[in-house]
Amino acid sequence: MQNFDFINPTMIKFGKDQIGTMNQVIPQGAKVMVLYGGGSIKRTGIYDQVMAALKGFEVIEFSGIPSNPEFEVLMDAVKIVQSDNVQFLLAVGGGSVIDGTKFISAASLYEGDDPWDLIVKQEPIMQGVPFGTVLTLPATGSEMNYAAVITKGETSEKLLMQGLGLFPKFSVLDPSVVSTVPKRQLVNGLIDSFSHVLEQYLTYPVGAMLQDRYAESVLKTLIEVAPVIVNDPSNYEAAANYMWCCTNALNGMLQNGVPVDWGVHMIGHELTALYHTDHAITLAIVSPSYYRHMVDAKEDKLIQFAERVVGITEGTKREKALAAIDFIEDYFNRLGVECKLSNYVENYDGCAQAIAKTFEDRGWFGLGEKQSVTPKLVTQIVEAAY
Ligand code: NZQ
Ligand code: ZN
Q: What EC number is given for this enzyme (predicted)?
């Protein structure tokens, strides 16, 4: 097992009616900005529950944070936070609203000239306006981690920011909200969380027995609840397990002491930046091709996945490794998701070369746990996913 540092200070308030208790953990007397997206929270009744819980606080609202949160929109909120002396931010939404709130939190206290530097300079973010979250869509794990992914439409960039200052103070996880989530977003959540585990598990063995079995448990639970959730999102027990899996897939526990990859996500983010494809769909497009190109480097863990997660006992080592990748592709297909770019985008000529060039321009010459995914290999991976 490799050395690691671990901290996760986010308080989780999990279960039915927990939205009503969050006033206990917001600083008394704080001026609160409630941030949300395109309005789903009003249709689902979550908005009313949040406002009832905030009775007694001075509250202002900022709505319209889009999926793949846009720098330009977020900067409008930053100006209000600064001019109105907002003391606490409350994100109510999915990964986009939470990530957007993380950026607003950091940018509101940023003293440099251009807040986009918070992202491009890639320095760890150590401070921000304190914030909590009410999760309405299980998927990204943003509710319990210190990462955010922000888009700049003007330059077609979608980039990660991270740092200990971006941990939410608390996150409310009420599985009842899952009953309101449309099928498309449920499927996205089941794919994104699955991919988060794979990025931290499908590398090479380092004898991290507990982390491996933790990852396998999250994968097996997702596989078990996926069909139940898609057919009946009002099944509370399945929703609770789905929601907690999504959080555990990316709250830092799985990456302790193990090598991590994140190449699928890096390539996927470029597809979203170019074509506005849903984040999870980009992962389904990239993953099968990525893992087939990396089958040699990842063979041991693919075999472990085949044996322990899928239950495959027959075949040669190579057959088992390839069967693991087939299973991953089949998991996406069974959720109704095709794994080729041409299923979603009409004109993708030159896309693979464009992504490889972007990586070269950024100095990203080797992605993956062994930095072996060169721009040339990225081109091959994306072309094979056309
Ligand atoms: O905007 P509203 O009206 O709220 O509608 C949203 C949005 O259209 C809707 N929705 C959310 N909760 C709902 C609901 N509709 C009905 N009922 C509910 N209860 O769902 C749509 C998608 O929401 P979004 O937040 O965009 O989805 P998701 O949670 O999948 O977040 C995706 C973003 O997170 C980033 C992605 O790159 C993408 O920008 N990620 C963040 C990560 C992190 N911070 O650690 C890691 C991930 O890998 C990912 O990159
Ligand atoms: Zn993701």
A: 1.1.1.1
Considering the domain architecture, whether residues 212 and 358 belong to the same structural domain is answered as yes
Last residue of a domain, one of 160, 176, 192: 176
Of 64, 39, 60, 63, whose CA–CA distance to 51 is shortest?
A: 60
- Report how far residue 212's alpha carbon sits from residue 207's, in angstroms, rounded to the nearest whole number: 9
Q: What is the ipTM of this complex?
A: 0.99
Query: From the CB of 320, is ligand 1 less than 6 Å away?
Result: no
The DSSP letter of residue 166 is G
> Using CA positions, which residue lies closest to atom 7 of ligand 1?
67
In the block, which residue shows the tokens 């499908």?
A: 202
User: Does residue 122 form part of some domain?
Assistant: yes
The pick from 279, 281, 286 for probing ligand 1's pocket by mutation, whose C-beta has the most ligand atoms within 8 angstroms, reads: 279
194-244 pLDDT, tens digit each: 999 999 999 999 999 999 999 999 999 999 999 999 999 999 999 999 999
